Amino acid sequence: MFSSMKIEFSALPEGIETLEFHPAPNDLHLETDTCTFAGPVAVRLSVNKTLDQLVVEGLARTHATATCVRCLDEFPVSLDESFRVIARVVPDDEAGDDTGDENFFLLRQSEPVWDLTEIVHDFLLLALPDNPLCREECAGLCAGCGRNLNREPCVCAGKPASGPLAQLSVLLQPSDRRGNGNP
Ligand SMILES: [Zn+2]
Ligand SMILES: [Zn+2]
User: Fold this and answer.
1) Helix, strand, coil: what percent of the chain each, to 5?
2) Is 0.90 topped by the overall pTM?
3) Quick one: 182 exposed, middle or buried, by C-beta within 10 A (0-12, 13-18, 19+)?
4) How many A from CA of 66 to the centre of ligand 2?
5) 119 with 145, same domain?
């Protein structure tokens, strides 16, 4: 089963190795308020090891279901993120320092193990939409009657609106009902 996405520097031969991992979204702490994940994340790492350095070209893929922030409908989202990160093995007292570069890491010489779990988590989370929309022009829910305006018309017309949002939605209704043929 999944333990984390660790690369043991000394266990790798020099040259390029491909490693595959299939962490569950829970292992990566990917769930957000607006996205749920259906299956595992497929992570492929192409690791190029040289004398004291690892260059990793990564690809992380998964599918999620997002909830539209306007109409609350759910819709599928595909994530397909590639990234490139580098780690160098350095004397212990130099390792762990913040390198100031989010794609560059320093590993301890005495125990050069690189855990990429957090890195993959960060890349995938960045790719998730903050405010998912089922489509750019989603009409959302009417604040008055609650109808999904993508599918059915508002039935508020003629009734007194209640609440500040309801009044706003009346103001925002299409103006083409006001008159016919008037310039
Ligand atoms: Zn929507
Ligand atoms: Zn309405």
Assistant:
1) 15, 35, 50
2) no
3) exposed
4) 25
5) no
* For the CA of 139, the nearest ligand: 1
The rounded Å distance from CA 75 to ligand 1 centre is 9
- Count CA atoms within 13 Å of residue 96 on its CB side: 7
- 77/30 same-domain check: yes
Number of structural domains in the chain: 2
In tens, the pLDDT along 4-54 reads 789 999 999 999 999 999 999 888 888 888 889 888 999 999 999 999 999
**Distance of CA 112 from the midpoint of ligand 1 (Å):** 47
First-to-final CA distance of the chain: 69
The parent domain of residue 72 ranges over 6-127
Residue 113 pairs in a beta bridge with: 8
